[in-house]
Amino acid sequence: MADIIRRIQTAVTDFILLGFGDLPDLQILLFLMFLVIYIATVAGNMLITALVVADKHLHTPMYFFLGNLSCLETCYTSTLLPRMLVSLLTGDKTISFSGCLSQLYFFCALAGMECCLLAAMSYDRYLAICKPLHYSTLMNNRFCLQLAAGSWLNGSLATTIFILFISQLIFCGPNEIDHFYCDPILLMELSCSDTHLSILVNLIFVSVFTLPPFLLTMTSYVCISDTILRIPSTTGRKKAFSTCSSHLTVVTIFYGTIMIFYMLPKRDTLRDLKKVLSLCFTVLTPLVNPLIYSLRNREVKEALSKAVSKCGFHKNMQRL
User: 203 with 43: CB under 8 angstroms?
Assistant: First the structure.
C-alpha cells in the first residue's frame, strides 16, 4: 500500500519530447522546413481529395480509395507536425500525459488505417489487371464502401484497446522521450510498472492489424507482376504497369522505411538515424503522396487542368 501511495505521489504528469534538441542552432531552420512541408502536405492532399469529389471522371474505385488516402494523410501529418512546429518555435518540449496518449492514439490508429487502405488499393489494382472482366461486378460501390469503412474502423478499434492498457501504466520518472512524438515503445520504457502485458498487447495488435494488410498488398503485387509479364506486347505491359506504379511507389516508401526502422538494433548510437527514418514514414510519405499521384497519373493531371481552367474562366467573368 505504501509503495502504491509513493508511486501516485511521484507520478509523472508531463513528458518532454526531446525531438531535435541536440541541434540548437538549427531550430529556426528546421521550423521553416517543417512548416513548408506541412503546408505543402495539407494543400496537396486536400487538393487531391477535392478533385476526386468534384470531377465525375474520377468517381471510380481507384480514385475513391485515393481520396480516402489523401484525407487520411492530412489527418496523419496533422497529428505530429503542429506539435513539433510549436516545440521548434517556442522551445517548449513538454506534453501532458493526456496529450501524449491522444497523440499516440491518433498516430497508431491512422497508421493502422493506412495499412488497410493501401491493401484495399492493391486489391483494387489486382482485380483491375488480373480479373478485368469481373472487375466492375466485384469492385462495386457497396464493396468499396465496406473496404473503406473497414479500414477506418479497424485502426480505431485496435488502438483504443491498446491505449486502455497504456493508460493504466504508472510513470514515476524519468519523463524524457528521445523522439519528436510519443513513440509507444519509448513511452512504455519509461514506466515504473510492469509493462509485459502492454508490450504483448502491442505486439499482438501490430501482428494482427498490420501484418495481414502487408501480406495482402505483397500478394496482390506478386499476382499483378505475374500477369503483366505475361502480356505479349511491350505497350500493353507499360500501360498495365502505369495503372499501379504510383501506388506501388507509395507502398515501397511507406513499408520500406518502417521495416528498416524496426529492423535496426536498439542502440543509442542509432537513435538519430531512427528519427530520420521516422520522418520518412510520418512526414515524407504524406508529402509525396499527392506529388506521385498528380505527376504520374494522367487522369489526375487532366482533372487538375480542368479545375485550373474553370478558375481562370470564373476570374475572367468577374473582371468583365
Answer: no
